[in-house]
Specification:
The protein is mainly α and about 270 residues long. It has one domain. The chain is built from 14 helices and no strands.
Length: about 270
């Protein structure tokens, strides 16, 4: 009898679960989660040689490149991000987010953000964006004001600084786990916090340039509406889970990277 009741409940709940899954998948598609993960992988692998040189005194070996390729496994990265988001976002917040993002302005903004994120991977584009941000107070005062509002509403500086510090700490922990570093956690934390000022300055400059690049094509009305979305309970919930899910991914990558570096410093096999 119990098995029958459970089966009946499953039949009754199945349509709503399918609808919820479809809505979640649609939101993840619009927000270009897969594209941001691909960008993270490309950027991470591009830095392996420099990391190897800094930490081991020589370019990355084929073995280390293969190990780092596995660290940046997109299936695992995607699973980490989507699990965190699926476990945290309520159905109500998913549906409310789609009201904005599945509209014409929302779709365009999401496309502009990911296009700018990919474009700014190019150092020349990044430098130009940073310079444009410095000059924008005179050239685009209204846009500068809205970008600053975006940074404030979503607490972008603090969230980015905190995420970077945590990732750096996890890197140290990975190094220590692989016997590539002899430091107490207190010493690790001290070293990490010593980087806070530089990370903050870098985050402010990068975010200003990136957001200016992304939002320049928008009308004042579309950008104002976008800011209004983030300044809602749904917007705050979505912003929080985007950071927590990607930070979880970055922390896992940083820890595993520390382990790989430690192994290659000692010449051991993973």
């Amino acid at each position: 009898m119990i098995r029958a009741l459970i089966f009946c409940c499953a039949v009754v709940l199945a349509p709503s679960l399918v609808a919820a899954d479809a809505a979640f998948d649609r939101l993840m598609t619009i927000l270009a989660v897969d594209e941001y993960i691909a960008i993270t992988r490309e950027e991470g692998l591009a830095e392996v040689d420099g990391l190897a040189m800094d930490m081991t005194g020589q370019a990355a070996s084929p073995t280390m490149l293969q190990q780092m390729d596995q660290v940046y496994n997109t299936d695992r990265m995607r699973d980490t991000v989507l699990k965190e988001m699926a476990d945290t976002l309520s159905d109500r917040d998913i549906q409310a987010s789609l009201i904005f993002f599945d509209s014409a302005p929302g779709l365009r903004i999401a496309e502009l953000e990911v296009a700018a994120r990919r474009a700014i991977m190019d150092k020349d584009v990044e430098n130009a964006a940073r310079m444009a941000w410095i000059q924008a107070e005179e050239t685009h005062p209204w846009l500068v004001a809205r970008v600053k509002d975006m940074i404030t509403i979503n607490d972008l500086i603090e969230r980015n600084v905190s995420g970077a510090l945590n990732s750096n700490f996890r890197f140290f922990q990975g190094l220590a786990e692989g016997n590539g570093l002899e430091m107490s956690e207190e010493e690790m934390l001290s070293d990490v916090w010593a980087q806070e000022g530089d990370i903050r300055i870098e985050s402010e400059a990068w975010l200003g340039g990136y957001l200016l690049l992304a939002y320049q094509p928008l009308s004042q009305q579309d950008l104002t509406d976008y800011l209004s979305f983030w300044d809602t309970d749904t917007g705050r919930a979505l912003n929080a889970v985007l950071f927590s899910s990607f930070n979880k991914m970055y922390d896992d990558i940083s820890f595993a990277t520390g382990q790989v570096v430690a192994v290659n410093m000692s010449g051991q096999d993973l």
